[in-house]
Amino acid sequence: MKKIEKRSLFCLLLAGLLALGLGVFTFRFFVQGSQWASFPANRHLYADGGLSRGRVLDRNGQVLVQTAEGRRQYHDSWAVRLGTMHAVGDAQGRVGSGVQTRFAGKLAGYNPITGVNGGGQDLTLTLDAQLCAAAYSALDGRRGTVGIYNYKTGEILCMVSSPSFDPQNPPEIRDDDPAYEGVFVNRLLGASVVPGSIFKAVTTAAAIDVVPDLFQRTFRCEGRIEIGGAQITCSQAHGDLTIGQAFTKSCNCVYGQLAVEIGAEELEKRCREFGLTESFSVDGAPVARGSFVFDETDPGALAWSGVGQGQDLVNPCSMMVFMGAAANGGQAARPQLLLSAATEGGWKTHWYRTKSAGRMMSQATADQLAQMMRDNVVDSYGEGNLAGLELCAKSGTAENGGETPHAWFAGFLRSEEYPFAFIVLVENSGSGSRVAGAVAKKTLAAATGR
Q1: Cα separations (Å) of 117 from 59, 106, 229, 300, 303?
Q2: What are phi and psi of 217, to 5 degrees?
Q3: Is pLDDT at 167 greater than 70 in this prediction?
């Protein structure tokens, strides 16, 4: 009798394990089935070294890649191919951020009921192909990135990373070739770079909340100031400044003092609330976290951190979303790239839905920061051919270990018709306002038809 009971318990245990295994398999089948079906070893889906099904289109219906005559064919324009390569991806899957890699199952036409059928699906991206081409041309072969997105809806209109390569005719890329340094990295999503003075927008937002008499005070800049044994220097002695003037003149001395007054704990808290140190993804592609070292015991290092130097590292996409929040009353939409997906027969399998990035700052703080950035354009940079679009911006020239500084330009348009936030990084190229600002204005002009 005892032997029968033991055998019964053993059989029940085996049955339980079988049911558990079946449950795990069923769950993974529905969650990961598309990945299994689109595995590169599947000869039904891959040919000529790449995925052989499905099309990728931009928001205007331009075909960015499709299969024709047995191989993947990309857009006719060389500039479009290079400008959209990091978003679309290459046939070999070396660019991990590309939709051909991340959405291979959707492109193949997989669904868990019928498996892979037909000729695959059409994926329509939020990108404007011609805008990406214009941004790539504006970078003019220099390493960097350009991002533009709609801060109300989250649609990414421009995602360009340089260097790039032609996916239609991929070159042999050696690891030690300086022309292709970091070519497989989508710099908008995957890079973290010292921000320079664009970080003063972050310090300003923190100061608005923490320093009660910020807009009534007058600051003094003698061209240099010693804080905690460190020399904080400016390009010139600015004299007496309001906070608005200090922002426009990008005064390191004032912002070094502000950082110490705000304190390490508050700066760290604000960077977290502003999303600069938090992880998120753009349709499954991870966005690199920024990192900052705010040390209360080292006032000199803390001062340089408030200026945007020291050990500060910021991700371009995260900073673009922060700019979107400043433009949109303190909260912005989460960036997205996939607009829709549909079968060959026209049945939609994906619908776009705006996702909030959450509240990053109060309405009052956002409005004050936005106005300071607007004043900065009017008093310092000029608007060029973007007059009437309420351009608000901050430049940054980020020192880079003795090499030529990185050039940054970040901001947004306060326009109902064009609610765009943007980020431009041009690595090792010098002045932020002159170099990155010129790239931004050319790209925004293309985005708004100016």
Answers
A1: 25, 11, 69, 63, 60
A2: -85, 160
A3: yes
How far apart, in whole angstroms, are the C-alpha atoms of residue 398 and residue 408?
Answer: 8
**DSSP 8-state secondary structure symbol assigned to residue 335:** P
What one-letter code names the amino acid at 156?
A: I
Work out the pLDDT band at 214, boundaries 50, 70, 90: very high
By the 8 A CB rule, do 200 and 307 touch? yes
How far lies 266's CA from each of 244, 249, 300, in Å? 21, 24, 17
Which residue type is seen at 413? L
Instruction: Please list the alpha-helical segments (H only) found in 184-251.
Output: 187-190, 200-210, 243-248
**Tokens (6 digits) for 357:** 């990035």
Dmax (CA) for the chain in angstroms is 98
Q: Which amino acid is at 364?
A: A
**Cβ atoms of residues 93 and 86 within 8 Å:** no
**What DSSP state is assigned to residue 117?**
-
Q: Which structure tokens are listed for 294?
A: 């705010």
Burial of 178 (0-12, 13-18, 19+ CB in 10 A): exposed
CA distances in angstroms from 328 to 150, 157, 332, listed in the order given: 10, 18, 6
Residue 64 CB partners (closer than 8 Å, separation 6+): 56, 57, 58, 74, 75, 80, 84, 88, 125, 129
Write out the two tokens for 212: 């009660």
Whole-angstrom distance, CA of residue 446 vs CA of residue 79: 14
Neighbours of 415 (CB within 10 A): 15
Residue 406's pLDDT is: 97
Residue 143 tokens read as 């390493």
290: number of Cβ within 10 Å: 24
pLDDT digits over 310-327, tens only?
999 999 999 999 999 999
- Tens of pLDDT, residue by residue over 17-56, are 666 666 665 555 454 444 444 444 444 444 454 555 799 9
- Residue range 134-163: average pLDDT? 98
Note whether 373 and 389 are within 8 A (CB): no
Give the span between the Cα atoms of 251 and 233, in whole angstroms. Answer: 9
Q: How far apart are CA 30 and CA 25, in angstroms?
A: 9
DSSP 26-90: HHHHHHHHHHHHT-TT-TTTEETTEE-S-EEE-TTS-EEEEEETTEEEE-S-HHHHHHHHHHH--
CA-to-CA distance for 388 and 404, rounded, in angstroms?
Answer: 34
